[in-house]
Design goal:
Strand order of the largest sheet of chain A: 2-1-7-4-5
Helix content of chain A: 10-25%
Number of strands of chain A: 7
Oligomer: heterodimer
Distance between the termini of chain B: 59 Å
CATH class of the largest domain in chain B: Alpha Beta
Largest sheet of chain B: 5 strands, parallel
Strand content of chain B: 5-15%
CATH superfamily of chain A: Beta-grasp domain
CATH topology of the largest domain in chain B: Rossmann fold
Number of domains of chain A: 1
Structural class of chain A: mainly beta
Number of helices of chain A: 1
Order of helices and strands of chain A: EEEHEEEE
Order of helices and strands of chain B: HEHEHEHHHEHEHHHEEEEHH
């Protein structure tokens, strides 16, 4: 699974994963309150199950000053 | 596939599909405007726009409801790599939606950028930025209202910061329609996104395809506000509904405080907040409770640095 983290700047990692978006965030130690999860350019609910072939973006909701 | 609780289409957030989330969000904003009487018919609204998700969202929704009475306003504080990008987003958005945009800069008005101030002094960037930006915003009293994109998260952070710093008087800046004293020297502010969390605003701007950059102010990362923000997000993830309860309890408290401009004691709550009379700055005439307003005091302090630029 390709995971792109979009915060201040952007970086991409590859990881084997099967489960839902919420458990992916737990694995990455990211607080669900602080991000949106996007799969193949579409916003998804955190309970949504992911496939290992998915293209995932994790967008930080924190911006500004 | 997770489905929407209203229509069984694919759910995208809060168990709602795209259409029903957008409806939920917009209704929340317009309900806030109605319930707190934020806008009267015919009000000319100046919207503080940074180009970020919050300000573009509030600009979009106000323009949708009050078209022809909305003008966007941006301040360039002079933060390289951050403000220049977001101002491009603001300009693009306003052109796309045919909204007038006014841009002013701190450099032009005060002779120095925020970057220059931070590089050459010990001054806290948020304090300098806040003083100069608020000064410029308040000068536009040809408008009836100043709308900002402050969301629920911003508000909770402010409330907790004021409490921990024992700055109870500053609680007057909180609320969907902040302020303690009405005066023609102050441009009335409104916060239509008051009941929307930062995550909800981000989701809305994403679903509406607003073009914004993923940037955080470089000076915000180590701020006290950022520390409070992280703690509150941590609590929310452990105890769902924490943020909403803080806001609702705060609004109940503000309603009970009933602060007066002269007498200052609320006997029921035993809280006394002193409000000094508002006069005009000796230098620029803008409202202040001191001889010089904050902006002129700051400018005087930075004068040696300004002369070097």
């Amino acid at each position: 699974m390709k995971i792109t983290m979009k915060q201040c700047g952007e970086h991409t990692i590859e990881k084997e994963f099967n489960g839902n978006a919420k458990s992916l965030l737990t694995l990455l130690e990211i607080n669900p309150e602080t991000v949106l999860v996007v799969r193949n350019n579409e916003l998804i609910d955190l309970e949504e199950n992911l496939e290992d072939t998915d293209d995932i973006e994790i967008l930080s909701v924190v911006s500004g000053g | 596939m997770m489905t929407c609780i209203k229509c069984k289409n694919k759910s995208v957030i809060k168990k709602l599909c795209k259409q029903h989330f957008i409806e939920y969000f917009e209704n929340k904003v317009y309900d806030c405007i109605d319930k707190y009487e934020l806008v009267k018919e015919g009000d000319k609204i100046l919207v503080g726009v940074s180009g970020g998700k919050d300000s573009l969202t509030v600009l979009y929704l106000l323009n949708k409801k009050f078209k022809n009475n909305v003008t966007a306003y941006s301040v360039d504080e002079g933060i390289a790599g951050y403000r220049d990008k977001s101002l491009e987003d603001a300009k693009f958005f306003c052109e796309q939606h045919n909204i007038s945009l006014i841009t002013e800069s701190i450099k032009h008005n005060f002779g120095i950028t925020l970057d220059q101030t931070v590089s050459n002094t010990e001054k806290k960037p948020c304090s300098v930025c806040g003083v100069f930006r608020r000064y410029l915003l308040n000068k536009h009293r040809e408008y009836d209202l100043l709308a900002t994109g402050h969301n629920m998260d911003d508000e909770i952070q402010s409330i907790l910061m004021n409490l921990t710093k024992n700055q109870m008087g500053l609680l007057g800046r909180c609320g969907p329609k902040p302020g303690i004293v009405s005066s023609d020297k102050f441009l009335q502010r409104i916060k239509p996104l008051y009941f929307c969390t930062e995550k909800e605003v981000m989701a809305y701007s994403f679903l509406m395809n607003f073009k914004t950059s993923f940037v955080e102010c470089p000076y915000a990362k180590t701020s006290f506000r950022a520390a409070i923000r992280d703690e509150i997000n941590d609590y929310e993830s452990k105890v769902n509904g924490t943020k909403e309860r803080i806001i609702m309890n705060f609004l109940d408290l503000v309603h009970d405080l009933n602060i007066y401009s002269d007498e200052n004691i609320n006997k029921d709550l035993s809280i006394s907040i002193t409000l000094n009379p508002i006069t005009g700055c000796n230098s620029c005439g803008e409202p202040t409770t001191r001889e010089l307003c904050h902006a002129c005091s700051l400018k005087k302090e930075l004068r040696p640095l300004i002369l070097m630029q």
